[in-house]
Automatic annotation (TrEMBL):
Residues 13-80 form the HTH gntR-type domain. The lineage of its organism: Bacteria, Pseudomonadati, Pseudomonadota, Alphaproteobacteria, Rhodospirillales. One of its GO terms (molecular function) is DNA binding. Keywords: DNA-binding, Transcription, Transcription regulation. InterPro entries: GntR_C, TF_FadR/GntR_C, Tscrpt_reg_HTH_GntR, WH-like_DNA-bd_sf, WH_DNA-bd_sf. It comes from the Bacteria. SMART domains: FCD (SM00895), HTH_GNTR (SM00345). This is GntR family transcriptional regulator. CDD domains: WHTH_GntR. It comes from Azospirillum lipoferum.
Length: 231
């Protein structure tokens, strides 16, 4: 059981914020997939708090679009329609490509070293075929690109939208050969960033994220299978 402290003080809102972050991480990591019920009592027991900060955290997540409040069901992790997914990936591709463009212009030597280290970590887990391990390494890699833009507002916007589509980005990695293909795309992006080629970094990243052509067809097939398994 996690414990974020007693809620008998004036720090209730701070606890609600902490809970929001923890639940959001569970959603983004796939530990809470789309459609999962979020019981206030269960979450309160898990984090050793009363139901009040849990309720406030769920309301924050609902405002961000990560959680839906359904009649007679309460809070559930949001399930996106196909139209929502396609539109969000379209926006995501543009936000991440802007991050990469700014990385090529603004990253320091220390930023470069950190990005390369994360890039190598992604490669290390490919041969294992562990999609979950690659997804986690991949998430850290992309987080470094958001941070490397050195634009706090862009970083926050990109991370927020990524968390909303995280479960669907994970689905893409299940396609045979996708882990290696993903890493090769990363490699081209990293080389462009290190060389300071802002336009190339932007274009490569946009292609890496966008759902288009055969990628879209493959994604749709995987999405149908995933939803059948959840149903």
């Amino acid at each position: 059981m996690s414990d974020i402290g007693s809620d008998r003080t004036d720090g209730r809102q701070n606890r609600a914020d902490q809970l929001r972050v923890l639940i959001e991480e569970d959603i983004a990591s796939g530990r809470l997939p789309p459609g999962s019920r979020l019981e206030e009592s269960t979450l309160a027991e898990r984090f050793n708090v009363s139901r009040t900060p849990v309720r406030e955290a769920l309301a924050q997540l609902a405002s961000a679009g990560l959680v839906e409040m359904r009649p007679r069901q309460g809070a559930v992790v949001a399930t996106l329609s196909l139209e929502d997914i396609v539109e969000m990936f379209e926006v995501m591709a543009n936000l991440e490509s802007l991050c990469a463009e700014l990385c090529a212009r603004r990253m320091s030597a220390a930023d470069h070293a950190a990005l390369l280290a994360l890039h190598r970590q992604c490669e290390e887990v490919i041969d294992s075929g562990d999609t979950d391990a690659y997804y986690e390494a991949n998430r850290r890699f992309h987080e470094a690109i958001y941070a490397g833009s050195h634009n706090r507002h862009l970083e926050e916007m990109t991370r927020s939208l990524r968390n909303r589509v995280a479960a669907y980005r994970r689905i893409q990695l299940r396609h045979p050969g996708r882990l290696r293909a993903s890493w090769k795309e990363h490699d081209a992006i990293v080389q462009a960033i290190l060389a300071g080629e802002a336009e190339r970094a932007r274009d490569l990243t946009k292609g890496h994220i966008a759902i288009q052509g055969d990628t879209f067809t493959d994604f749709m097939a995987l999405l149908r299978v995933s939803r059948l398994n959840v149903a």
